[in-house]
Amino acid sequence: MTAALPPDIEYEQTIRGRSVAKWDNGYVSDVVYTRQAFQETTPAWLATMALLLGQRPPDLTRPFRYADLGCGHGLTATIVAATCPHAEVWAFDFNPAHIESGRHLAAAAGLTNLHFREASFADIAALPPADLPEFDFIASHGVASWISPEDRASLIQIIGQRLRAGGLAYLSYNLATGWASMLPVRSLMRTLMGSTRARSDQATTGILDYLDRLKDAGALYFPANPTVVKRLTDARPQETRYLAHEFLNADWHPLMFAEMAEAMSDVKCTYIGSATPTENLEAISVPPTMLSLMAATPDRILRETLRDFGVAQTFRRDIYRRGTLPITNKEQLRLFDEIELIWTGRQPEDPVKLNSPLGQVDGLPEVYGPLMDMIMAGGHTVGTIRRSHPFTSRAPTDLSQAISLLMASGYVQPALPLAVRANGRAGTDRLNAAICADSADGGDIALLAGTSTGTGAAVNPVEMLVLREMFNGRPVQIDAMIDPLLTDLGQSGRSVQRDGKIVEDRTQAHAILRESVTAFMAVRLPILGRLGVIAA
Q1: Which stretches of 287-353 are DSSP H helices?
Q2: What confidence score (pLDDT) does residue 20 get?
Q3: Closest of 512, 488, 492, 509 to residue 445, by C-alpha
């Protein structure tokens, strides 16, 4: 017979008949989070954004340290470690399943510069100074508004303790300006969760069904808050694990920019701008009727708050710097000229369509046409572009704005320095081979690392299987590999589909797969070569 655990080390508690963990403080822990990576948190993106915002970035050609706080499976940190072998990378999460997952992939990739640590924010904040180094980059994506105020205070305390002078911190979080109307609905979702014994991801569909029944029964809250109806509709196709982590945590606190900026100011960190480039361009980030009000508002915190109200902002990606030492125009221009831009493969329309917080806008053909032509041709730095027609007569600020818009619209990504790319090839190949092998076993990672940009590129399961052959050193012979690919797809629990429906006929599935692989080899593979997913 097993003795009962004393109360002080009891690991579970019961809420309305449902057993839940105590160690997670109400954060969803009965199902792991999705395995994702985010370009805005990577060193090349953050360094480029800091420079565009007029701040000296950390030097990526020298050894640097990077930390991911609340890393989940640590895929972003793993990509950074693989593509930047001269960096020391740390990834922290309090969920042991996430840490185990991250360590398993890092070991498969043979990465020795990546350290995973299972710890809560309170644990990390309490560490003595000698137990952790200072970091050049600290990123925390999608964490701050899903944890308790106490844990958020610990998160910010860690940044104050561990971010070196001149270092960059990235914080992303939900905003009350876009989420306020969802607060009562989210509370109801938690109440409904408390009445079921189902695992949180398995309960999400039933919860959404119940909310639809409530809406259809005539609850006046929904017509009074039409954005809520759209959010619930948009939630339907989302992965249930994502929905559980998004809506079913005990803590769910959409924030205001001012409270985050004030807390970060207390630990000597100053807001320098958004990691979403278009949000730093006032002319396209607020309604035109607000521009005079913005111009008459010198206070930075108030102006950012007005911007959030102007577009009913739902999510912020803030960049803070520890210290704001001015950079000279000459140094900024020199560093700007050294940036190389990598085409992502997104085909531009004519005129080029650009994303903004207010919707799509058309880029000036005389600027964006030749600019995209040069970037798509490859091998151009900002300096070579700036010295080419038609940009010689334009101010550098015009080009920086155009580059910001292209980055935000998914056409280009900033490159890592050439020396870093050369050294990152071996580790990146090992990581990508490990991800392809994991995908063949049914794994859910949907991207591979690129040495050119130091971030991830989306790759589907069929493409993963083709690339697995290449990483294993086997030549790709399309006709000979289709039957094995069909078998591999079936063994990994996947199938060939057309128009969202499974193709049962093997001959038809064979033809669809051959068409897909042929197109991949002709069109997509060269793009992945540019991005550094494979050797070009």
Answers
A1: 291-295, 300-310, 329-338
A2: 52
A3: 492
Distance CA 84, CA 107 (A): 16
Handedness of CA 69, 70, 76, 82 (dihedral sign): positive
Contact of 471 with 461, CB cutoff 8 Å: no
Output the CA torsion sign for 281, 284, 290, 295: positive
Q: Give yes or no for a contact between 521 and 445, defined as CB atoms under 8 angstroms apart.
A: no
Q: Which residues pair with 173 in a beta bridge?
A: 316
Which parts of the chain register pLDDT below 70? 1-21
**Secondary structure (3-state) at 197:** coil
pLDDT of residue 15: 45
Work out the end-to-end distance of the chain between its first and last CA atoms, rounded to an integer number of angstroms. 63
Residue 283: how many CB atoms within 10 A of its CB?
A: 11
| Distance between CA atoms of residues 46 and 312, nearest Å | 25
Whether residue 138 contacts residue 167, with contact meaning beta carbons closer than 8 Å, is answered with: yes
Residues 6+ apart with CB under 8 A from 520: 462, 463, 466
Angle of helix 149-162 relative to helix 257-266, nearest 10 degrees, comes to: 40
Rounded CA-CA distance 220/81 in Å is: 51
pLDDT at 7: 35
pLDDT digits (tens, 9 = 90+) for 266-276: 999 999 999 99
Is beta strand 163-174 parallel, antiparallel or unpaired with respect to 135-140? parallel
> Which of 182-207 are b and which e, b meaning 16 or more Cβ less than 10 Å from the residue's Cβ?
beebbeebeebbeeeeeebbebbeeb
Instruction: Confirm if 306 and 149 have CB atoms less than 8 A apart.
Output: no
- Torsions phi, psi of 176, nearest 5? -65, -30
Question: What's the rounded Cα separation, in Å, for the pair 295 and 160?
Answer: 32
Give the bridge partners for 447, in sequence order: 458
